[in-house]
Amino acid sequence: MLEQPQKVRLFFTKLDRAKYISHLDMNRCMSRALKRSGLPVWYTGGFNPHMYLTFPLPLSLGCESSYECVDLKMTRQVALDSIAEKVNACLPPDIQVFAAGPQKMDQKEIAWADYEMVLAGEEGFEQKLEEYLNRSQINVIKKTKKGEKGIDIRPLFSVVSLKASEGTVLATMRFATGIEVNINPSLLLDNAPFRLDVRSLKRVMVYNKQMQPFC
Fold it and tell me: Closest by alpha carbon to 52, among 37, 34, 65, 66?
């Protein structure tokens, strides 16, 4: 056993049907897969020892992701390139680990996240969507632990790209995300002054303040 546990960060996808798995169930799913994998995962001490997993940026229910991560520790040194195959053998196909590495960044460094979404609406909604996103202010009511408060979310997101095709728009947007400020895309989409149908929503990347991929 190592004097100091090996800190590992797993990167995984959460797609298709897995988007309906809650954060609590995601924790259980990953815990069971890691246990079945035979990896020497570190457990807490005390009367109720349990696998200690930390998800730096839990995903909202109904949202897919191609860039999720979970932090854990190993009781002995493990080759990082061997982890994904062992864990994936114990996971469903909609949840798959694609990389494992050291915990280079603190989760407090998370600042931005990119989302891809397919949007649809009534005829002509594309023009309305563009006008809405180009507003100088977009005031919404945000629920917090202390209650509700009104905020202008316009400075807290940017449009990376908009591509219209056959009655839908594929939008890629960047939202302020993390401990200091956390803007869920639903705040923007649900407050549109016209009917907007969100066909799909996927988080595709997470960054720090310097726009470096979180790793």
Answer: 34
Q: Write out the residue range of the structural domain in which residue 71 sits.
A: 6-104
- Distance, in Å, from the CA atom of 77 to the CA atom of 190, rounded to the nearest integer, reads 47
Model-level pTM?
0.93
Same domain, 42 and 115: no
Amino acid letter, residue 204: V
How far are the Cα atoms of 18, 38, 68, 87, 211 from residue 58, in angstroms, in the given order? 13, 25, 8, 20, 20
Q: What is the CATH number of the domain that holds 19?
A: 3.30.70.580
Do 27 and 92 belong together in one domain? Answer: yes
52 vs 24, 31, 91, 204, 215, CA distance in Å?
13, 9, 18, 26, 19
| Number of domains comprising the chain | 2
Residue 213 lies in a domain: no
pLDDT digits (tens, 9 = 90+) for 93-142: 999 999 999 999 999 999 999 999 999 999 889 999 999 999 999 999 98
Q: How far apart are CA 81 and CA 95, in angstroms?
A: 18
* 73 Cβ neighbours under 8 A, 6+ residues apart: 5, 6, 7, 8, 41, 42, 52
pLDDT one-digit tens code per residue, 5-49: 999 999 999 999 999 999 999 999 999 999 999 999 999 888 888
Let me know whether 10 and 95 are in one domain: yes
**Domain-located, residue 214:** no
